[in-house]
Structures are given as structure tokens and as C-alpha cells.
Design goal:
By secondary structure, this protein is mainly beta. It is about 15% helix and about 55% strand.
């Protein structure tokens, strides 16, 4: 009887230790700028869709798959906006829209990860743009972690999207002309375990 109790106590202690270590497996990941893209889409008079991307970005991720927690910080260089048309890039950087001279970066910070099974389904946080901070939830269209055969390290990432109301950040240009206030954000991100 005593042996059974000792074995049971040892098993319980082992389970408690393994449960504790499962929540302590948070790892650091560095955003891979060659596989990370932040793009936007906005309707143009109902006839077409204007699209652009930001070429310079950096950030980090803390991710605990077992504990289903994480934190992400992504900083985007607004001066790196690229639509494929130089005149449009300059207008987007002007005080009418992104006001890149006064606000050269925007930042997404999140610490609430939701999961569907083992995969991230959405990331909730805040977007700071034009000096204002508002909540944004990025929903995952797909998410996966894999062992990179080239880097010989774990890489996690996915395709995320959200539709935001740009007027929440004070970006009102074109509303009187009929430009949409809704902007679709698409964020493709991969981060390499450090």
C-alpha cells in the first residue's frame, strides 16, 4: 500500500512538473522580412481596388504553443510604401493620408492569441497609426509551424487579415469624393525561432 501511495505521489509530482514546463516553453522568434509582407486594399469609386504594400518592416514574436499564448510586435516603415506608381506613393505619404514626415512608422502590438486546435486562429491587439492607437483583430486564413530545411530552425507563420475603418485613426481624405473608409489589411508573416 505504501509503495502504491509513493508511486502515485511521484506520478502526481511528475505530472505537475511537466504541466509547469509546458507553460514555460515560450520561445522567441524574429520576423523574417523576406517572408513578411503588410499590404492594404481600398476600393476606388467602386470601379477598381487600389493596392499597396510596405517594403520595410521588423519585429519579434514570443510564442508558446503548449500554453497557447504569445505576443507580437510589428513595426512598419510608412516611408517604404509601394504601390508601383511613384506619384501615388508620394500622395499616400503626404499629410492627406499617412503623413509619413510626422509619423514615419506604424506599429501593431498584440498579446491575445486565439487558437483552433494547435493553430492560431486570430491575434488581437492594437494598431498605432497617425499618433492614434485603436484595437485591431487579425484573423488567420492559415497558420503553421515547420522545420525549415534551409535555416535548420523552426519557423511559424500565417496569412492574416482585417478590415479597419481608417477614420478611427483620423485618415479622412477622399470621403467627400466617395472613397471608402474601409481598408482591408493583409499581413503575411513568418518568424524564425531564435
Amino acid at each position: 500500500m505504501r509503495t502504491s501511495f509513493t508511486a502515485l505521489a511521484a506520478a502526481a509530482a511528475l505530472a505537475t512538473l511537466s504541466l509547469g514546463s509546458a507553460h514555460a516553453e515560450s520561445a522567441s522568434y524574429a520576423i523574417d522580412p523576406t517572408h513578411t509582407f503588410a499590404t492594404f486594399e481600398i476600393g476606388h469609386f467602386g470601379a477598381s481596388v487600389n493596392r499597396g504594400r510596405f517594403d520595410k518592416k521588423e519585429g519579434s514574436v514570443q510564442f508558446d504553443r503548449a500554453g497557447k499564448t504569445g505576443k507580437v510586435e510589428l513595426t512598419i516603415d510608412v516611408t517604404s510604401i509601394n504601390t508601383g506608381t511613384e506619384a501615388f506613393n508620394k500622395h499616400l505619404q503626404s499629410p492627406d493620408l499617412f503623413n509619413a514626415a510626422q509619423f514615419p512608422t506604424m506599429k501593431f502590438v498584440a498579446d491575445k492569441f486565439s487558437f483552433n486546435g494547435d493553430n492560431v486562429s486570430e491575434v488581437a491587439g492594437t494598431l498605432t497609426l497617425l499618433g492614434k492607437t485603436n484595437p485591431v483583430v487579425l484573423k488567420a486564413n492559415q497558420f503553421n509551424c515547420y522545420q525549415s530545411p534551409m535555416l535548420k530552425r523552426e519557423v511559424c507563420g500565417g496569412d492574416f487579415e482585417a478590415t479597419i475603418d481608417r477614420t478611427q485613426w483620423g485618415m479622412n481624405f477622399g470621403l467627400a469624393y466617395g472613397f471608402s473608409k474601409n481598408v482591408r489589411l493583409v499581413v503575411q508573416v513568418e518568424a524564425v525561432k531564435q
